[in-house]
Amino acid sequence: MWEKYNQARDSRVGSRVMQVERKVPGGKLVQMTSDSKGSIHLTGDFFLHPEDELNSLEEFLTLLPSDNNINIVELIREYIEMRNICMIGLRPEDLAELLFKVRI
Amino acid sequence: MKWRLLPFMMERGAMNMAIDEAIAECVGQSTAPPTLRLYSWSPGAVTIGCFQSIDEVNIHNCSRYGIDIIRRRTGGGAVYHDPSGEITYSIIAPEHIFGSDILASYREICGYVIDSLNILGIKSYFRPVNDIVVRGKKISGSAQTRRSGVVLQHGTILLSHDVETMFSLLRPTAAKLANRSVDELITSIDSLVDASKEEIIEALKEGFFSNKQWNESPLLPEEIERARILIERYDSDDWTYLR
Which of A17, B15, B83, B179 gives the lowest tally of CB atoms within 10 Å of its CB? Predict the structure, then answer.
């Protein structure tokens, strides 16, 4: 058990570059981590349907450019619509804000 | 459509989650009817939402006190399932019964719990997304998933709450607590009315099945068989320590 825990922790925390969190309207807590490779990971007590879409959303967020001239909120909104993702306790605006902070 | 009530059962955490999933699969294949399940946990267990970090759990204390740790397939937060301090419900039904609006279905299903609490003399209300509160304090939380055209919502109804044990097993972040004590955030049936567990179960049956046809029948052999396979995931460290 502890070996697995340490492996999981190393993969998330040991290589962690930055983690930010936000309590979103409705009280859900969302944490965003950027690891040493710049990959984005989301954790928290939010709801996202279908649940299996989280990994692809994380990959999408990872690939979003850091460019102030691009409307990140709109890109995230388009992505979740295209993938038929339903987020509860989490908005595109929250993800965009977390992404901005985690990349500072 | 006739609903099924399963006999009350007490299982370990991994089996509880495997049974929910097995029922959902069979409902999706139309081999099982829409189902209400009322159950509890032995030994006690901590469940975490499928997106939560394992850091939400005090693993050392869970190990020390023999408390299981299980990652659910539903989102939401970490819960301590005290064997004598709560009743868990699962509602598993084809999606067309509750419609495609997820928030509306939370409201509808939580409405049955509110009706049940009302039968016991407790006035409660729904607090979106997934809570039921009494005078601003949470008495019931729930989480829902939808797969293959089936809604699975499970939730807890607190009969009593042991703040000290809960806090020794869970690690809620400061942001989650927002500078409030747990006593300010949650309440339980025992602090509101004098009701036995049997009376509470009867109230839940009445609240859920009002204006519905139902009968009590056990798990199907195929559900039991499938649960015995699905339990492997819930028992695996790869799944539990996924995040």
Answer: B179
Tell me the residues of B at the A interface, defined by beta carbons under 8 Å apart: 49-55, 59, 63, 73-78, 102-103, 128-130, 143-147, 173, 175-176, 178, 237-238, 240-243
CATH of the domain at A86: 3.30.390.50
Q: Is residue A61 assigned to a domain?
A: yes
CA distance B241 to chain A (A): 6
User: In a structure prediction context, what are the per-residue pLDDT tens digits for chain B, which is 243 residues long?
Assistant: 899 999 999 999 999 999 999 999 999 999 999 999 999 999 999 999 999 999 999 999 999 999 999 999 999 999 999 999 999 999 999 999 999 999 999 999 999 999 999 999 999 999 998 999 999 999 999 999 999 999 999 999 999 998 889 889 998 766 566 556 666 789 999 999 999 999 999 999 999 999 999 999 999 999 999 999 999 999 999 999 999
Q: Which CATH superfamily is domain B2-240 in?
A: Bira Bifunctional Protein; Domain 2 (3.30.930.10)
Q: What is the Cα–Cα distance from B85 to B154, expressed in whole angstroms?
A: 16
pTM: 0.91
Asked if A5 and B241 come within 8 Å (Cβ–Cβ), the reply is yes
Burial classification of residue A68, based on how many CB atoms lie within 10 Å of its CB (0-12 exposed, 13-18 middle, 19 or more buried)? exposed
- Counting the structural domains of chain A, the total is 1
| Distance between B107 CA and the closest CA of chain A, angstroms | 13
What is the nearest CA distance from B59 to chain A, expressed in angstroms? Answer: 9
Structural domain of residue A42, as residue ranges?
17-102
Which of B124, B99, B120 has its CA nearest to residue B110?
B124
